[in-house]
Design a protein that fits this description.
Blueprint (H helix, E strand, L loop, with lengths): L2 E5 L2 E3 L5 E8 L6 E7 L6 E7 L4 E3 L7 E6 L4 E6 L8 E8 L16 E2 L3 E5 L1
């Protein structure tokens, strides 16, 4: 079955950068993958998506600052985050699903079947 393992979180000052990684295994050849952020007491919020064709989508809060990419040879999904703000603080999860329709940042958490364990990002 598909497995996802995030890494790369940490604590940074506002204006700093982080790169999150999501190592994947047993991924389908066609897929939609997303990055989500969750803060306590709230649902997971879509940040960015990328599909198996390399098409990307970003939430308004991420546009111009975050970049989602994938290394297909290494089976790793990335989220490069620049100019970080305190409101970017949260636990970041990567998610995957074999359904590729509507693979956008607006796609809700309930439309993904596989999830990683999350990695904490704190911006102060």
């Amino acid at each position: 079955h598909v497995q996802l393992v995030e890494s790369g979180g940490g604590s940074v000052q506002a204006g700093g950068s982080l790169r999150l990684s999501c190592a994947t295994s047993n991924m389908y050849s066609r897929y939609c993958m997303g990055w989500f952020r969750q803060v306590p007491g709230k649902e997971r919020e879509g940040v960015a998506t990328i599909d198996s064709d390399g098409v990307t989508s970003y939430a308004d809060s991420a546009k111009g600052r975050f970049t989602v990419s994938q290394d297909n040879a290494a089976n790793i999904l990335y989220l490069e985050m620049n100019n970080l703000k305190p409101e970017d603080t949260g636990t970041y999860f990567c998610a995957a699903d074999r359904e590729t329709l509507r693979c956008t940042s607006a796609r809700g958490e309930h439309d993904y079947f596989y999830w990683g364990q999350g990695t904490q990002v704190t911006v102060s």
